[in-house]
Structure formats: structure tokens, C-alpha cells
């Protein structure tokens, strides 16, 4: 059983969505031990004891996670189907960026790369939005990164 099916069908955790079920859309993105992961491509048993966090699990004390708040403030969703995966991917992506991990478009490979719009687009390229809210998603991630 995949991690996505275990979450949705057996634990009633519905934030990650089954979009393509082939790891091509990113709607099922969750954080496992702080790293982003496509839950439709991984077996649940492989993560026994791991810390699995969905977009719903990012919030705390009744407050939205700063990334979720930025998505709301920047109107970075329309239908909302991809939003939980986008938010988890964005949180994981910012952690990767902060650690200095380069992407395909990173100019300077030493130190922490500048978080440009191109850098955000490249790092989020595995998450599709069928409503095409991409400009607002990039703005939301940039806003959250500044906080």
C-alpha cells in the first residue's frame, strides 16, 4: 500500500491528494522527516516510525503555517486541489534552499543561492497547478521566505 493510500483511506488524512498516481503532478506531496516526498510513489511500510507531515499538520495552535498564510494572502490557489501538495513542497523547498542545495538554475554554487523567482519556479517544477495560479504561487513562496 502506498503512503498516500494509507493516509487517505485508512487514517482519514485527506490533505494530500491523488492527482495522477504516477508521481508527475505533486498533489500528493508530504514531508517525511522534514523532506518533501511524493506519497503516491512510496510504500507506507518504508516509513514506519517516520515523522509524516501533511499540509494540515503544519498548522499549530489554531494558526496557519506562514506558508499557508502566504498562499492565502497572495491568492495562490483557485480550485485548491493542488494546494496542500504545493504548500508541503514549498516548505521543503525552502529548507533545501536554506541548506545551500543548488538547483538547475543556480548561478553561484558556493554559499546559499539567491531565492529568485526563477529559483522558486525551478525548485517547484514538480508541482502542477491545473488552474495556472503559478505567478501567485511564486509570490506566496517569496513572501513566506521573507518572514
Automatic annotation (TrEMBL):
What superkingdom does the record give? Bacteria
Q: Boundaries of each 2Fe-2S ferredoxin-type domain copy?
A: 1-58
Keyword Endoplasmic reticulum among UniProt keywords: no
Q: Name one GO molecular function term.
A: oxidoreductase activity, acting on the aldehyde or oxo group of donors
**Annotated keywords:** Iron, Metal-binding, Oxidoreductase
Q: Return the Pfam families for the record.
A: Fer2 (PF00111), Fer2_2 (PF01799)
User: Which CDD domains does its entry note?
Assistant: fer2
**UniProt-recorded name of the protein:** Oxidoreductase
Source species: Mycolicibacterium poriferae
Q: What is the lineage of its organism?
A: Bacteria, Bacillati, Actinomycetota, Actinomycetes, Mycobacteriales
Amino acid at each position: 500500500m502506498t503512503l498516500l493510500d494509507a493516509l487517505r483511506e485508512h487514517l482519514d488524512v485527506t490533505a494530500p491528494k491523488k492527482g495522477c498516481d504516477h508521481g508527475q503532478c505533486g498533489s500528493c506531496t508530504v514531508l517525511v522527516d522534514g523532506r518533501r516526498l511524493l506519497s503516491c510513489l512510496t510504500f507506507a511500510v518504508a516509513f514506519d516510525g517516520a515523522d509524516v507531515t501533511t499540509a494540515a499538520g503544519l498548522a499549530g495552535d489554531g494558526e496557519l503555517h506562514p506558508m499557508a498564510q502566504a498562499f492565502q494572502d497572495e491568492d495562490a490557489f483557485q480550485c485548491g486541489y493542488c494546494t496542500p501538495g504545493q504548500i508541503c513542497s514549498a516548505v521543503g523547498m525552502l529548507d533545501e534552499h536554506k541548506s545551500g542545495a543548488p538547483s538547475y538554475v543556480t548561478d553561484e554554487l558556493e554559499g546559499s543561492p539567491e531565492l529568485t523567482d526563477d529559483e522558486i519556479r525551478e525548485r517547484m517544477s514538480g508541482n502542477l497547478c491545473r488552474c495556472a495560479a503559478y505567478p501567485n504561487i511564486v509570490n506566496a513562496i517569496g513572501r513566506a521566505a521573507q518572514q
